[in-house]
Amino acid sequence: MKIDGSTLTQLLSSLDKYNPVANELIEKISKGLLPVAMLILSVLMYIEFSDTNKRVQIEQGRVNMELFFSIAWKYFVGFILVIYSDEIFDSIVRLANAIGNIINKVTTDKTELKFVVPEISGKLKTTQKMILNGLNAIAHFFNWFAEILAKILVFLRAFELFLFKAFAKILVAAYVSDEWRPVATGFIKKFMAVALQGCLIILILKLYPALMANDMFSIAASGNWLKNLSTMFVSLLKSGVFILVLIGSQRKAKEWMGG
């Protein structure tokens, strides 16, 4: 198989270009949650200032201005992150798309790299041909299913990105709290992993045909029954591995992001 044009376009599209209607809905939801995020920040800031003031009064008898400004700066950054969370998350997607574009533009001396199911050749018995034709049909089905799976993964990736973007303001607000910071950082890492998954899918779709074209398992179909059978069997295994690698693309991206 090769990279389908529509699949590639969707993978390299920003959220507003992938689905303008869905993106508009998510941005309205995000803006609607802004007061909630601000309230969370305000409550956390009040609690921290109150606790810090009590602690400093007990220990030193007065508030340390350097400590005061460090806390104020932390919450100022928190307010900026909350207000511009949509723009920040969109920028992460654009960065991932830029990486994907670079990967997609890389070519080899080969005019076209494409994984194909080998044809059956030679004089074979009727029973042997029936078995091989059955395996050939299954291999073609796996190849077709891999293309459909790639489209489904692209859709699921976009769906997840929209969900992350909708709740970004709420979860990012937790970053200012030392206790809840792992929640915010984990949320951001997972979003980055989902965005990075697009690059991985492009890399897999380009690398797999090139890798399997001349690997050590390649067997040229010939008139020999066993060689034909081996070729069909290996073709099925390749398609199965391809499907598993595609399914595991997001898990791999999360591993890279430390998730």
Explained architecture:
The chain crosses the membrane at residues 29-47, 67-85, 137-159, 191-209, 229-247. This is Conjugal transfer protein TrbL. It is a single chain. With 259 residues, the chain is mainly α. The chain has one domain. The protein has helices at 5-11, 15-18, 20-32, 34-59, 65-83, 85-105, 126-166, 168-172, 181-213, 225-247, 249-256. The longest helix is centred in the middle third of the chain and has 41 residues, at 126-166. Mean pLDDT is 82; it is low at 215-221.
Could you give a quick summary of the protein structure above?
The protein has helices at residues 5-11, 15-18, 20-32, 34-59, 65-83, 85-105, 126-166, 168-172, 181-213, 225-247, 249-256. By secondary structure, it is mostly helical.
